[in-house]
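$ ./design --mode recover --in tokens.txt
reading tokens...
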């Protein structure tokens, strides 16, 4: 199974030569040991580190840096909340002491009720050397320790510097030098996508008479094959296993969707834009998607059945075609939180309604 959403009308995401990142192309992702990096098309990079795989309790640290000169790194910490035991451990913790190599590096006051809490600049400044030189950084409540692995941190932060053109500059995190930051990657404004209006009454599935349903299914079969959508083809003496759903996109265009295959914890849905009346002339716009709602086709897929890591992307109807509007993951599968620890995008846009308001 291909994880993700393939849009036939558009080119897919791709990793770009570094340090250049373009607003109309995807960014890049990189991982090494217990750390990973995601840089989006605006030049913003996010690095996340975790506990050693299999260790308990879970913890993750997120570092974020925008492109451009003199951009500071911001950071957030997240204690594990996936397992009941982790929730109980963190339930009454409001203050953490940061230690490495037996030394106290600083403290953090956790935000009550929040999934993650920020680190101030002074605290982060003393943690950064430990991330590059130590085997671990420990966050301690006095009764419980959360141990962040630093394995892979140097490689990932070096890749962040490379992506943003900072290697050898005074602002580099790893290979700091004497050069100024005048030549570093400059931030790029996210592309603006104007979403076509979808009338509320047209957001639900259209009712189809049996004859209409059969006619549309026949048209879809003629434009695809059994390998692409097995459930659209009936077994001997049976109706098609997949459920056909049709939504109105405009006065003369419909979106037809079909569950093509079901897996252990994901399903693959294909979509076609068709004419509202015969001949339907289907144009395939998505395979391995998961859902459609309000003008957006989304592909949200679990990395594993536990649901602690996901990949997702979104394409938005602009009145003519479905346009790529976001691609991201929630980070490594480390049991940090239900639904994943973070939002780590490699492609972002600003989606606006046709009246100019943000969606």
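writing sequence...
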């Amino acid at each position: 199974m291909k994880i993700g959403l393939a849009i036939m009308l558009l080119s897919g995401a791709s990793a770009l030569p570094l340090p250049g990142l373009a607003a109309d192309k995807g960014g890049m992702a990189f991982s090494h040991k217990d750390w990973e990096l995601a840089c989006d098309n605006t030049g913003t990079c996010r690095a996340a580190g975790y506990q050693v795989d299999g260790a308990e309790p879970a913890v993750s640290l997120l570092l974020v840096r925008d492109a451009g000169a003199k951009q500071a790194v911001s950071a957030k910490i997240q204690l594990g909340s996936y397992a009941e035991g982790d929730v109980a451990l963190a339930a009454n913790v409001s203050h953490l002491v940061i230690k490495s190599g037996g030394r106290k590096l600083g403290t953090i006051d956790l935000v009550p009720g929040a999934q993650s809490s920020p680190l101030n600049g002074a605290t982060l400044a003393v943690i950064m050397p430990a991330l590059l030189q130590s085997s671990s950084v420990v966050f301690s409540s006095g009764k419980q320790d959360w141990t962040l692995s630093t394995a892979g941190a140097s490689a990932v932060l070096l890749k962040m510097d490379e992506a943003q053109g900072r290697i050898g500059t005074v602002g580099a995190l790893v290979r700091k030098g004497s050069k100024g930051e005048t030549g570093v990657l400059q931030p790029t404004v996210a592309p603006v996508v104007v979403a076509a209006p979808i009338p509320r009454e047209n957001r639900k599935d259209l009712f189809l008479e049996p004859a209409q349903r059969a006619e549309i299914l026949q048209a879809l079969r003629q434009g695809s094959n059994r390998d692409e959508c097995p459930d659209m083809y009936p077994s001997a003496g049976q109706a098609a296993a997949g459920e056909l759903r049709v939504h109105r996109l405009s006065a003369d265009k419909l979106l037809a969707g079909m569950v093509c295959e079901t897996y252990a914890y994901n399903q693959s849905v294909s979509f076609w834009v068709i004419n509202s009346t015969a001949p339907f002339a289907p144009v395939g716009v998505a395979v391995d998607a998961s859902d459609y709602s309000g003008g957006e086709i989304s592909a949200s897929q679990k990395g594993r059945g536990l649901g602690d890591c996901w990949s997702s992307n979104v394409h938005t109807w602009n009145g003519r075609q479905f346009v790529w509007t976001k691609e991201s993951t929630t980070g490594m599968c480390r049991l940090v939180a239900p639904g994943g620890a973070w939002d780590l995008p490699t492609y972002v846009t600003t989606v606006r309604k046709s009246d100019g308001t943000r969606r």
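exit 0
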